Fold this sequence. Notes:
By secondary structure, this protein is mainly beta.
Amino acid sequence: xxxxxxxxxxxxxxxxxxxxxxxxxxxxxxxxxxxxxxxxxxxxxxxxxxxxxxxxxxxxxxxxxxxxxxxxxxxxxxxxxxxxxxxxxxxxxxxxxxxxxxxxxxxxxxxxxxxxxxxxxxxxxxxxxxxxxxxxxxxxxxxxxxxxxxxxxxxxxxxxxxxxxxxxxxxxxxxxxxxxxxxxxxxxxxxxxxxxxxxxxxxxxxxxxxxxxxxxxxxxxxxxxxxxxxxxxxxxxxxxxxxxxxxxxxxxxxxxxxxxxxxxxxxxxxxxxxxxxxxxxxxxxxxxxxxxxxxxxxxxxxxxxxxxxxxxxxxxxxxxxxxxxxxxxxxxxxxxxxxxxxxxxxxxxxxxxxxxxxxxxxxxxxxxxxxxxxxxxxxxxxxxxxxxxxxxxxxxxxxxxxxxxxxxxxxxxxxxxxxxxxxxxxxxxxxxxxxxxxxxxxxxxxxxxxxxxxxxxxxxxxxxxxxxxxx
Length: 471
């Protein structure tokens, strides 16, 4: 056979003949055509014509090969007939492109160079007692999923939609309506040491926590939207994060639906880094926006607004329990607690250091001096260079109680007006030198060389003119 032959698949062809290298002899079984292509020298390509294909057995890609639909992913549908994986990439650079994979056991990628691209993965199940993780896609090595829609998949283990192992990547994709239905985490995605970037995680569910995603083990979640996810246990309804980083994300409308717990938008469980995120309209009993537990957590350059802690709960914006946490340059506004600490609550021997933050117009019940911040007797809060009220009972320096003067508070624009008392009133720190604010502006502007309070740096307008005097 000639090197680099293309192999063809069509739904119906009475003249099908091995090795299926022209359209007249195209095969009708994807499995058989893939096996024929793998027996040939590379490069190997299998082109699948539009139609529905029922595949009772797993199609295994053991070497370099591209399996591709010819008319877009909606037109070419591969239907599994059991909970076995529909495709399994076990070696080489196996690529699956422009297909719909549905009603089976999803796809497994066990090759570091394996790729799933431009595919629709829908209604797959791994729900039998011995089933593995990753109801839609299971990446056991550093493979890649990109430009895909992964919808309404489920499993008994972690990662109802996608399971990522260390080094794996999930990019530019939609993860919608997936579920981890037993006592495991990561309804949409379970990310242990991988990278999730530029994705939309919407309406996923986990019974144990991390309704949208559980990111851990050095994993990263960046430039993504985490919206309307739910969890039964209440542990991080949108995001559960441990020893990992969440950056430049919008975290919105995530709620607890069962037993009340901690972290409506996100729960940091120790060594979590949460930076440059907008966290809004999330709900849980404790930590409607952010909950923090575990040894150490960092929240930086975040806008935390309009979150709620339900009746009897605390810390609608941020709730810390048994942790050491640092809040740098955050704006915590308009959060509402059914108990104490509408903005921030420090409980259970927590220690929170608050630097350069704006914590204002939050509400609590009872409506007293705990509206913006609250601490139990066993906890400590140190506040430096921040705008809140009251501040007289807290250790720290450089705090103010003035109204922050936002650009347009009534229309939710919390950038600082030029007359704001928060401009140039923060405390500079070394981390700011190469960092940006929530808008992507330099954290220390070139005009003043002084940092502002809150998540936005005021942008000075006009022209800077240098004048040189000659003597």
